[in-house]
Amino acid sequence: MAIKANEQISVVIVDAQELVRMGIKAGLSDSGQIVVIAEGETEEDVGRLVKEQRPDVLLLGLNVFTKPGIPGGPLAVCDMLKRLVKVTPTRILALSRYDHKGLVQCVLRAGAGGFMLKDEALESREELIQAVIKIARKGRLPLSGTLYEKMYPNSAVIEEVPQLTQRKIEIMQAMADNPQFTPAQVADLLGIAESTLRNNLSAISRALDTPNTNGAMIECLRLGLVQITRERIRP
Q1: Lowest CB count within 10 Å: 10, 36, 69, 222, which one?
Q2: Degrees (nearest 5) of the Cα angle 208, 209, 210?
Q3: Helix-strand-coil percent breakdown of the chain, rounded to 5?
Q4: Residue 186 pLDDT > 60, yes or no?
């Protein structure tokens, strides 16, 4: 359930590096609305603290999933995130030092409420606070301007929310709800031809001035036009 404007936001921080945890906690101290109720440093701490503390938001350093001698990578991280979001209503803000498009998209599609670079979280207290508040209140993706510019350096800055038709927003929401669907399956779900779906996706990308459908999805999430939901339709 989303947090109302006058309610406190409880936060758990889990990251493998103590200095990062200290910096993030200090950054959140400027907000009278956010309270850090627990900290952890391992993958095991993630499940335990979420279960015990039931925080509104989990600030999760993706480095907790990296273990010496054990194969990892974005897919392994995202599989773990998928399992986590199935068992808790806690919103997750993923933190990483890496801004690879594949990692960002994978983490968001796995169910994280947002993705933020650690350097940005540590350097900009206001950005961090607003990201946590936005996730807690609305569950929307706080993909910051800094991260967006790194991922799409040639995209124009959008000063106002683009005017997408309700039908186009429904198309993007259907894709966000069902990331495992093929375009043909999404088209069938919406009751339209696959060619119509593809034409709409091209039009949406042009309207948002993004290079492709993945970029359009990230922009829709950032602008709050689309939200990642917990329950998804399965084929």
Answers
A1: 69
A2: 90
A3: 50, 10, 35
A4: yes
